[in-house]
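Forwarding the complex inputs:
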Amino acid sequence: NAGVTQTPKFQVLKTGQSMTLQCAQDMNHEYMSWYRQDPGMGLRLIHYSVGAGITDQGEVPNGYNVSRSTTEDFPLRLLSAAPSQTSVYFCASSSSPGGYNEQFFGPGTRLTVL
Amino acid sequence: AQRVTQPEKLLSVFKGAPVELKCNYSYSGSPELFWYVQYSRQRLQLLLRHISRESIKGFTADLNKGETSFHLKKPFAQEEDSAMYYCALRGPGNQFYFGTGTSLTVIP
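Prediction (whole assembly, two chains):
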């Protein structure tokens, strides 16, 4: 199993550009989520999904869109990048919303918006 | 509102000394608490969860509902324990709330 994979590892964008951060998992997990990690802020939840076709907003959703057309993939879209979106982005998955199921994290994508 | 507080951004201890990483939470329901760790150049991974009452790599954490705390402890720190540690709370809708993290350095 590859676990949770993210592409790209690094990305530099100009203000106003759009891009999609890819996330995939091969563990047949229902629950997937996106976080951003900023110095002094910890990890903050952007969007999450409890299954294919179902998404919801987390703590900091503004400026980001998500979709979940398959169980495996959960892309994060930045429609018009802003310098405030410079961050490290982590995707995570777990087997189900309930219980004490562990979240598995991807390696992260480091995004810089100029 | 759900909140997780880790008051120490940086913590340094000598090898062999006890270590305690503090975590306090705010949650109106019955909390589900976790400790995650991120070693250098590795991805974030689960260290332990309070429901399991387990000891992982010598670390333990006890949930104290009266003090709303979930401090992580290890009696004898090792150099390989140097890492970033995050306390996390699972809230409604399976949303996770992470603390700001504590960077632990174990001095040889």
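The mean pLDDT of chain B is 91.
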